[in-house]
Each structure stands twice: as C-alpha cells, then as structure tokens.
Here is the input.
Amino acid sequence: MPEKKNSSNIGSVTKALNLVDLVMAGPKEGLTLSEIAREMKSSKSATHATLRTLVDHNYLRMSEPGPRYLPGMALIRLGDLASARDPIASLSRSIMNELSKKTGLTVRIARNYDGYPVFIERIDGPGVVRFFTPLGIRELPHVSSAGKAILAELSDERIREIVEESGLEARTPKSITTLPKLMADIRKIRVRGYAVDDEEDAQGVVCIGAAFYDHFGQCAGGISATGLKSELPTEEIAKLGIKILKHAEAITKKLGGKVKVRG
Amino acid sequence: MPEKKNSSNIGSVTKALNLVDLVMAGPKEGLTLSEIAREMKSSKSATHATLRTLVDHNYLRMSEPGPRYLPGMALIRLGDLASARDPIASLSRSIMNELSKKTGLTVRIARNYDGYPVFIERIDGPGVVRFFTPLGIRELPHVSSAGKAILAELSDERIREIVEESGLEARTPKSITTLPKLMADIRKIRVRGYAVDDEEDAQGVVCIGAAFYDHFGQCAGGISATGLKSELPTEEIAKLGIKILKHAEAITKKLGGKVKVRG
DNA sequence: GAACGCTGTTCGGCAATACCGAACGGAACC
DNA sequence: GGTTCCGTTCGGTATTGCCGAACAGCGTTC
Here is the structure.
C-alpha cells in the first residue's frame, strides 16, 4: 500500500519497496520475475535489477527449486530489531506475558499514532484458536478495544475529526457506525477505565482493552486481551476489565508515567 | 552490513537499504539528517530525498519533537508478516510455546541455511533474564546448540567446508575452536540426537537443541532451549535433551517429515 | 526431433533522474 | 545581533537506471 503519493520521492526506491509489498501479498510459493514485472508494469530487465538488489540485501530470497521470490530473512531481522528498540514494546513484553498466562487470552498492545491504534506486539494465547491480527498497520480505531481506549483519551473534537477522516466502517452487525453511539461508548470507557469490543470487529470475538500513559501524561497506547465470545461470558468481562486496567497501569509505571485516578 | 558487494545493483536502492540499517544500528533517540548524510558520505539533499521516501513508506519515522529518524512501523509489519508466512515459524509456534511453558526457558528455532543457522523465532521464558538473541541473521554454527544440531545432519565434508569458510571463533574459553573437537562433539550429537552448548557462546548460558526435518527428509532447522547454567545442572541436561528431541520430532511431523530413528 | 512457448539473464544506447552544491529559512545558543 | 547549527528547496549536470532486443535453458506440444 503506497501510503502517500508524495512527489519528489526517489522512484527506484519507491518501486523497490512496493515490490517488497507485492511479494509479501503474493502466494506462499512466491512470485516469478515475469509475474512481478507484469504486475509492476515495468520491463523484465529493470525489475530483475531491482529484485537482485533486494535479494542481495536479504529482503527477498529465491525459493529453493523454482526461481520464485519469497520474503527474505532481513525482514524478520528488522522486525525483531524494531520491536526490541521500541521502548513500549520491549518494556511491555513481560507484562503482556503475565496477562496472557493469567487469562489464557491473546494479548496485544497498540501504539497511539495521532489517535489511531497501531498494534506493535502480540502474544498468542495457548489455545488452538489463532486470531489474524497483523502488526504495524494503522487501524480503524472504532472496532478494537485498544483503539477505543485510545480514542477515549482524546478530546471530543479530535474524535470527531478522526471519524470524519476515516468513517465508521461496519465490520459486523454489532459494529458502531454512528457518532452518537460511539460517543456514548466513549463516555462509558472514560468512567470505568477500560473498553470493550463485543463482536464489533469479528463475529464471535470479544476483546477488552485499556490505555497506558507516558511520562508526559499523554496516552501512549493501549493493551488488550482477545478471546472467543464463548469463553468470555458477560459477567467475566467486568472482572477482566479490572485486571487489564491493572496491567495497563503497570505499563504506565514502566514508561515513567503517572497512573490516572478514576472518579 | 552489505552482505554481498555484487555489482550492477541499483545504487539508490542499495543506498536506501543501507540507510535503514544505519538507523537501526543508531542510538535510541534516532539520527538527524546531517548525521546520516555524513555517515553515508552523501549530500544532504540526496540523503533527504531518500529519507523522505523511506518515511513515506513507513520504513522510518520522525521522532516526536526533535527532527530525528527512527525505525518505522512498516518494519514491524513486514517482520510479523514474514514470520506468519514462513511455514516453519508458524507451524512451530505452538510447540515452542508448550516447550517454553514446560521448561520455563527461552525457546528458539533456526532455519537451516546451507548448513548455517538463522534463528527466525524466539519465545522468551518467564524469568527476568532476557537473552540478547537477534533473529534473521546467518550465525556461526559452532557456538549454538541449534547450529550444532544442524551441523550434525551434514556430511563430514560439508562441515569441513563450513569451518574453512567461517572458522571457529572463540566466544568464551569453552568455545570449540578446533576441527577435531568439533567432530567429536558432532559424533556425540549424532548418537544421542540432541546438541548441548555448555557456555560456548556466552558465559553462564547453556542451551540444548535438536534438529527437525522436512518432507524431503532434509534437515529444515533446529529448535533449542536456553537458560542460565545455574538453573540447568548437568544431570538436568540429559532429561531436557530428550524433551527437546520430542518437541523437535513434533515439528518434523507438522512439516510432514519423517521422524529419524536413532540407533 | 524440432519448433514453440515460457522462463531468467545479459548487453548497449538513450533519456530520464538521482545526484550535487548553493541558497534559503528557522531555531538555538552565545 | 551575530553565529552556527539544523532542515528544506531549487536548478543544472551527468550519472544511472530504464527499455528493448537478443540469448540461453526448460517443458510441452506438435
């Protein structure tokens, strides 16, 4: 996804990075040079040069027998390093582990990117169910508990701005799709301290999240726990909310922030 | 690290990718444009264009107040996706989790890259100790248990080749530094099925690993568990070795490979 | 077996384009 | 105010990455 079409970017670099995305979105067996060249609307020779450069840097690699291009190990290296360098991700890991172990749920944390959640770390629960939850993407705030927990920390005006920017897409019949309903939910979140996503993003999936704060007192992001609706009856949710709030406060402390007092 | 200096690569792309590495290796606060331009031996304007391109694609981002460049969220996105797309990493995760939970140790898996280990996934133990173990890097095979477990699956000739290529660097006084000693250890590994690294990579750190196989019967990689020497007395190691061997066999089965029978 | 289609790869020539240096605008510091 | 960093912008130059054609290696098909 070409996030912004700013001009005066370096063309060959843009092309190379788009090419990485193309391979990442491609099939498991990989893509051939010709397929990539076609998709990129570029000549085979030019594409070949770009591919070789990416392979030399291990961003891509060739599949073993067939000459197909696959994601390379540099991506894993950079992802791991970026995660280790991120103070929020690295400081939160032990707390996430603890929460996941206690609850048996999938735990994630999101950074606050101008009001939008970007999940940067995930710890899968022990169960067989695995949730498809990509990291490193700016997501819609109204369909995840971490996103709503972050929203609740913004001014009402900023929330309105974000809604106008991105809309309120319905992912399920239970998704919040109007501003008044969203604001009502936000108000609830502000008093009790945690947010609930009750099948608003995916059918049968519930998640509960709370915000944490940096040393400026700003909302740095949110932590959430995700599970199946069948595992999480309504009466459990309140108890779990308190538990997650406590863990969010632990992250706040690690970040050197002040824990918010709730009225 | 410019892995290979192959000519006829696209210069601007090479420059951009080296620039990413530079920022990744830089300080936590990030690097300024001028610092980067100096380091890259390039003009500020050219460096600026490259940086803008990388920022637009979220490979890099600007630090909040100061104009400094930091790793961007695309790296986390790509790393997570690459890991999810890797059949070995994704199929092994539940088994790694189980092993880590049972033993309380840090569990890692490495891919077999032409005889060299490349760790692609890590699950930290619950303890406070965290090991510095980067992923996605081709490592020396003789100083890790997973590396030695992979070596043991190669022909003696190939082992000799690898040793000539990369040498036997001493990381600690206990590191194996001569070919005869390495071969003696390899023979032990071949009979008992698991490899032991007894403070050969880092003082006070022990790890135990075993190989797993793909559907061609080839060694696809190795799994290992790492802990402090103080937590792992010698009499525990044999028991743990068997346990890890069992988990390696479970991975083999998931990959559709045949479990090796040991004489 | 030879022709065909498809791969991936290499090479020369042209033109686009990424480089450089200089100049500008802003912030911080003395 | 002066000075010295910073980041940013702009045009001219020539470097360089693009294209198309030609070649080589497989599989299939006739």
